[in-house]
Each structure stands twice: as C-alpha cells, then as structure tokens.
Amino acid sequence: MILDLRTHHLDSAKYVTKTDFSEVANYLKWRKYTTNFRNPFIDAILKLKRLFKNPAQEIRLQVGGLDFLCVACPPTKKGNCNLSNPKPNALPAFTPGNSIGACKDLLAIKKYDLIAGEVYTVRELRQTAGF
User: Fold this and answer.
1) pTM confidence score
2) 85: CB partners within 8 A, 6+ apart
C-alpha cells in the first residue's frame, strides 16, 4: 500500500529512526506538542518510525496538504497549524513569512533532489536522505 507523506516529514523520519523513542517523546513534550506519551500524535510518530524500518514500503511525496502526521498534530487539531500561523515554539512547515518559496516541503524536494508526487521506496528515500 502506498502511503502519502509530506516531503518535509522525511527529515522527521530521519530523526526518529536514528533516535531512541524516549528522547523523541521528551523532545515533543519540551516543544509542547504533547503532555504525555499516550496520544494520537505519539502514535503517528511511532507509525513513522515503523514505516521507515520497512525498505519496501512505498511512499508518495506530497507538497502541501495533510498527511497522517499533520492530522494527528495537536496544533493542527486546534486550528493553529503552522502552515497558516507560524509560531516560534513549533516545528514550522513554513518558515516565518509563510511564502510558498519558503515551504519546507519544497526545500526538502530541492535538498534531496526528489520529485513531488513521485512514489519512492523507503530504501530509496533513506539512501537519498542519508540515513
């Protein structure tokens, strides 16, 4: 099954696959994304970590929109998605100024020389992003 993923979440995958879960959870707590370790956002982070352990998993890279991480993200659920309302304590999908040229998805596309909408395997993405 092909899974859609916001392209900038490739950097999130890189972080969570290389980092112990408790460190990831503590980081999210420190950034005020969660107050406990049992909630839909932590579950989504764990799903991301599991997905990137399967080299054959197919992923379609998105620019914009909402993927499973966005849907579970507490700021998005509260109507404060940093796509439209950047906050200094958030991991912004857009840098301050919120212009399309600053979109982290587009920056990730350029950084890793990927194609938006293209389907890649986890193996290909890990090789491209260096993890």
Assistant:
1) 0.78
2) none
